[in-house]
Design brief:
The longest helix has 23 residues, at 223-245. This protein has two domains: 1-23 and 224-246; 24-220, Jelly Rolls, CATH 2.60.120.230. It is built from five helices and 13 strands. Helix 1 (8-19) runs antiparallel to helix 5. By secondary structure, the chain is an alpha+beta fold. The relative contact order is 0.30. The N and C termini lie close together (11 Å). It is globular.
Length: 246
């Protein structure tokens, strides 16, 4: 006669195993600061344009760019496997040609807390002068005849180890003030004409919502979840052994 008793360890093991299934987690962060830097004239270069839609005009040395920064402190203790940017195109202002922007990491000194959107101008944050500026994320490409009201993604960092290491390095900083990561968007190629992107303040007329830049982070399972799954496996194995012995 087959023993059909279900022992308590077997039952608990099954429950822990189901509850402890480990999958990668995805986090979507929005900026704590974002600002357009206008470098098209001497007057604009010293003016703060906080509250306007983000724009990408020309090269790092002229025109205009946008700064966004994210607080990564909520990811402390996690290991990332991928990261990418999503931008919402508000308008093309008369230009629907193909467009490519670069997303650069801006390394502010530890303890500085990044930039302040209420005082940032082209003159004090626009060019790669006083802070380290390194390529990051790869290109952010917007195709020919792209539509307004659409999200576009940058190249994923999963295939760029240096980018993943840069972001992980910010997450692993011991102080929250150093876990702030700034990114600057510059035009890489494309014909003349502004590109307007969503920021924290302005709402899109199509849905009445703000669509700020998004930083999407994927991580490996948390250690606690992996430990829970392992515990479930051990309990289940112990229960099955008791079942067969009975």
């Amino acid at each position: 006669m087959v023993n059909t008793r279900i022992t308590l360890p077997a039952f608990l093991g099954s429950m822990f195993l189901l509850c402890g299934m480990t999958t990668a987690a995805t986090f979507v962060l929005t900026p704590i600061d974002d600002v357009f830097l206008n470098g098209t004239s001497s007057g604009n270069k010293s003016t703060n344009f906080n509250g306007q839609k983000l724009q990408v005009l020309q090269s790092p040395s002229s025109g205009g760019a946008s700064l966004v920064q994210f607080d990564l402190s909520s990811l402390a203790g996690l290991t990332i496997t991928d990261a990418y940017l999503r931008v919402f195109q508000f308008d093309t202002t008369g230009n629907t040609a193909a467009f490519t922007a670069d997303a650069y990491f801006v390394d502010y000194a530890n303890g500085s807390g990044g930039f302040d959107e209420t005082v940032a101008t082209w003159n004090n944050y626009g060019g790669p002068t006083s802070e380290s500026l390194t390529d990051g994320f790869g290109d952010l490409s917007i195709p020919l005849n792209s539509a307004a009201g659409t999200y576009y993604e940058s190249v994923h960092a999963i295939g760029i180890p240096s980018d993943l290491a840069h972001i992980q390095g910010r997450i692993d900083q011991p102080n929250t003030v150093d876990q702030i990561m700034a990114i600057q968007l510059y035009r890489q190629s494309g014909s003349s004409g502004n590109r307007l992107f969503g920021d924290k303040e302005n709402v899109y007329v199509g849905d009445g919502l703000a669509h700020p830049v998004q930083l999407v982070i994927e991580t490996v399972p948390e250690p606690s979840a992996a430990l829970l799954a392992s515990s479930g496996c051990l309990l289940l194995a112990f229960g099955r052994r008791r079942f067969h012995q009975g």
